[in-house]
Amino acid sequence: MTQNTDMRPAKNARRKKTDADKKRWNPDIVVFACNWCSYAGADTAGVSRVQHEPHFRMIRVMCSGRIQPAFVLHAFEKGADGVLVSGCHIGDCHYIFGNERALEQFEITKNVARLLGIEEGRLRLEWISAAEGARFAKVIDEFTAEVRKLGPSPFRARHPGAVRAKDTGAVGEEKATA
Ligand code: FES
Fold first, then answer.
1. Cα distance between residue 40 and residue 35, in whole Å
2. Number of separate helices (H) and strands (E) present in the chain
3. Tens digit of each residue's pLDDT (9 = 90 or more) over 9-50
4. Looking at ligand 1, which atom is closest to the CA of residue 98?
5. Tens-place pLDDT, residues 119-174
6. Which ligand 1 atom sits nearest the alpha carbon of residue 93?
7. Which atom of ligand 1 is nearest to the CA of 62?
8. Model confidence, pTM
9. Of 37, 54, 97, 126, which is most buried by a Cβ count within 10 Å?
10. How far apart are alpha carbons 64 and 172 in whole angstroms?
11. What is the distance in A from the centroid of ligand 1 to the CA of 131?
């Protein structure tokens, strides 16, 4: 069996920005991803040079069970237009039942968000494995399109002083507390 050793970038890896791209409003999306599956899935998408929307910041947590409603609501408070929670598929959690806990917490988050007037489309939960780079890209594209359709978060409008996700400089990884 021969291995593909062609290291050149895929032909369509870099798409030129069209005028429509430049005029389009781009949402600020926060993605919470578990270290073992979804974060690795995003990495797989990058390594495989799968094209996807770039308008998101990723916060890595050890397990999706760690993602409490307060985390998601805080992201909205800070100016996120949409929040994606992702973790290992049910049965694959490295901490056995962390993603089942994530599911429960996500239901609570959705209820609180509804009470606050945040549309349901701004919140999403997805299970993405480390091997599913293409799926990660698809989810990001779909979610970005959905949030773009909804427009800027009403929660952000009610908090004009809110800091946009991209201005916090603290995203990328969960911060360790001293
Ligand atoms: S380790 Fe990925 S969801 Fe628990």
1. 7
2. 7, 4
3. 444 445 566 676 667 899 999 999 999 999 999 999 999 999
4. 4
5. 999 999 999 999 999 999 999 999 999 999 999 998 776 655 555 545 544 344 44
6. 4
7. 1
8. 0.80
9. 37
10. 15
11. 14
